[in-house]
Specification:
37% of the residues lie in helices and 15% in strands. The chain is an alpha+beta fold. It folds into four domains: 33-141, Gnk2 domain, C-X8-C-X2-C motif (Killer Toxin P4, Chain A), CATH 3.30.430.20; 155-263, Gnk2 domain, C-X8-C-X2-C motif (Killer Toxin P4, Chain A); 324-408, Phosphorylase Kinase, domain 1 (2-Layer Sandwich), CATH 3.30.200; 495-667, Transferase(Phosphotransferase) domain 1 (Transferase(Phosphotransferase), domain 1).
């Protein structure tokens, strides 16, 4: 919805089909250099009003309302403005991405600006990021071009030429002046946006520039604003970079190319004409195919939007429902000092609600189809189950620029932050480690059948085990969890999880059963007792699993226990628990005990003889990636001789999301 109350138009299938004209893209690449995606979220300037504020009354509800409307507009057309005058106080807002950002980067940039600018409340605020702009105020500023009291100039302190070389200084200043005039003049004629330099208009050797007027200005207002900004920015020469930030526009020059997608003009229009003419025949043959693909994508986008609307409608009156502004305030607008951790699904912040209750707020990466699936998966699963060893979900919010999950706050954070901290002042005792192991096992036993359905977590690891004030383990992060129907023995699914914790049958064949969690639990126990992180990238006996197996063969498992304990542990009990972990990591899933059997041995049979394990599989990381490719390539996997030859030669193929997650997890230091 925009400022006049109209709903934003949906993109048509025909318009979407333009994205799939591959020959057009191939031909255009002959003329335009490729760009690297970059949302450019570095802060160029932030200006808050006076500390007493300009708004009489509570601005937060109106501020939140216009930001929600602007979010919809930015998603649809990359800029938006909205205002709300009743009930008072009146609030006007404007957001715009620079014209070179691709859609995804635009959304990322806007989301970042949306989380930073509330620091100005209750005063007015202007925020210039290098890729977008966001402003709110108490009056209609949409036609404002310059504001002498508040417009900003940021010059680089680094100079491209020595100040004492006057001829070179003058020559560089002249080049800056020419490129700024070129880009400003072109932007006025090009709906308020242009870049200059390599692949841009009016190329000037060694200097690049970008000009962006806000879309609320007409051509005359854009010209006035950029002329003023040009005068400001040229004064920074011979500095290597400058940013002029006016009320109605943004102008930047640099000796380094900083813009993402080259937008051509001037003499480059000839190239555009040639590219279009050369591509016309190929484009015609793709119209039907492109329209069909576009329609499919359009349908999927509609499904995503419907999914996003489903939760607020059903939960707006529920105790699980939180307003975005409430959680934003609780986390001090997601301030870095409140950040508890960072993972593949998003960041977690400490929040303090108005009633003083402390919570953990998980800020999710947003709105892809897979993201929607994972979000609802986590909400639906955790909302329906409760156990002393599972993190409790308190609520969620889906109305802001990104979705939020609210959990109980656990003061001791995650197990990896306690177990693997260098020079830690606190060392977990044997009893505490066993307490954590037993609690995790009981939580998994509950998931695997105690809750009435069979839930497979798929991502058991130290960073997903949280600890309360009594060091009780609580399993967290159910974004990858899957339910197994009673009439099915396993699921066939694309792999997702963390290398080093994934069972061989799942890693190779995508065969998912509860025994995949048992395998991950076994690795987790080895980490807890040895004090070492599991890594498929450690060679030979340097990796935890082969090292423990080697000591088992030597009948000396107690030597694997963390040296930090200084021998203060019961040797036989430690040996039994370590041997139990080896049972859980056997290559054949049929040989691994169920979690109910694991809990039984941990709680009641601790001093009895543990069955003898067979050799676990060892993953050879040297073949996990193809160094000749910039992408993760999981085309070869080597496992121990417990796997069949056909399994050895199997290819690991997954969705792009799966491979990117694996690449991310594999690159983490262990």
């Amino acid at each position: 919805m925009n400022s006049n109350g109209a709903s934003p138009p949906m993109r048509s299938p025909v318009a979407i089909s333009a994205c799939f004209a591959l020959p057009l893209l191939a031909l255009s690449s002959l003329f335009f250099s490729p760009a690297v995606s970059d949302p450019r979220i570095a802060q160029a300037g932030l200006l808050c009003g006076n500390s007493s504020g300009i708004f009489a009354g509570n601005i937060v509800p109106n501020f939140g309302a216009i930001m929600r409307e602007i979010s919809v507009s930015v998603t649809d057309r990359r800029w938006g403005n909205s205002s709300l005058t009743s009930p008072p106080p009146a609030v006007y807002g404007l957001a715009q991405c620079h014209g070179d950002l691709v859609e995804t980067d635009c959304l990322l940039c806007y989301a970042e600006s949306r989380t930073r600018i509330p620091r100005c409340l209750p005063s007015s605020g202007r925020l210039y990021l290098d890729g977008c702009f966001l402003r709110y105020d108490g009056y209609d500023f949409y036609n404002e071009t310059v504001d002498p009291t508040r417009d900003m100039l940021k010059c680089s302190s680094n100079s491209t030429v020595p100040a004492d070389q006057k001829d070179r200084v003058a020559e560089f200043s002249d080049r800056v002046d020419r490129v700024l005039r070129n880009v400003s003049a072109t932007a006025v004629q090009n709906r308020g946006f242009a870049v200059a330099g390599e692949d841009g208009v009016g190329e000037v050797a060694g200097v690049y520039a970008l000009a962006q007027c806000w879309s609320t200005l007409d051509a005359g207002g854009c010209r006035v604003c950029l002329e003023n900004a040009t005068s400001m920015a040229r004064s920074c020469a011979p500095g290597e970079e400058a940013r002029a930030m006016n009320a109605g526009c943004f102008l930047r020059y640099s000796t380094t190319k900083f813009y993402s997608v080259p937008v051509t003009g001037g003499s480059s229009r000839i190239h555009i004409t040639i590219a279009i003419a050369s591509s016309a025949a190929a484009a015609t043959s793709l119209v039907l195919i492109g329209a069909y693909i576009g329609y499919k994508k359009y349908s999927m986008d509609k499904q995503v939007q419907n999914s996003l609307l489903r939760l607020p409608a059903s939960m707006s009156k529920s105790s699980l429902y939180f307003k975005y502004e409430t959680l934003e305030k609780a986390t001090n607008f997601f301030h870095d000092e409140r950040k508890l951790g960072q993972g593949g699904a998003g960041s977690v912040y400490k929040g303090i609600l108005a009633d003083g209750k402390v919570v953990a707020v998980k800020r999710l990466v947003f709105n892809t189809r897979q993201w929607v699936d994972d979000f609802f998966n986590e909400v639906n699963l955790i909302n329906g189950i409760q156990h002393k060893n599972l993190v409790r979900l308190l609520g969620c919010s889906i109305e802001g620029p990104e979705s939020l999950l609210v959990y109980e706050y656990l003061p001791n954070r995650s197990l990896d932050q306690v177990l693997f901290v260098s020079n830690a002042t606190y060392i977990l005792t044997w009893e505490e480690r066993l307490h954590i192991i037993t609690g995790t096992a009981e939580g998994l036993e509950y998931l695997h059948g105690g809750c009435g359905v069979k839930i497979i977590h798929r991502d058991i690891k130290t960073s997903n085990i949280l600890l309360d004030e009594n060091l009780t383990a609580k399993i967290a992060d159910f974004g990858l969890a899957r339910c197994l129907a009673p009439d099915k023995s396993h699921l066939s699914t694309g792999i997702a999880g963390t290398l080093g914790y994934m069972a061989p049958e799942y890693l190779v064949r995508g065969q998912l059963t509860e025994k995949a969690d048992v395998y991950a639990f076994g690795v987790l126990v080895l980490e807890i007792l040895s004090g070492r992180k599991s890594s498929v990238f450690a060679q030979g006996s340097g990796s935890v699993l082969p090292s423990v197996w080697k000591h088992y063969r030597s009948n000396n498992l107690a030597a694997c226990v963390d040296p930090a304990l200084r021998g203060k542990f019961p040797v036989q009990e430690a040996t039994n628990v370590l041997q139990l972990s080896l049972l859980c990591t056997q290559a054949s899933m049929d040989l691994r005990p169920p979690m109910s059997g694991v809990v039984e041995m941990l709680l009641h049979n601790r001093d009895r003889e543990v069955p003898q394990p067979k050799q676990p599989p060892f993953l050879n990381a040297s073949v996990l990636s193809d160094e000749s490719s910039g992408r993760s390539s999981y085309t070869h996997t080597w496992l121990s001789n417990q796997l069949t030859a056909s399994e050895v030669s199997s290819s690991l193929t997954g969705s792009p999301r799966t491979n990117s997650r694996l690449a991310m997890e594999a690159s983490e230091p262990r």
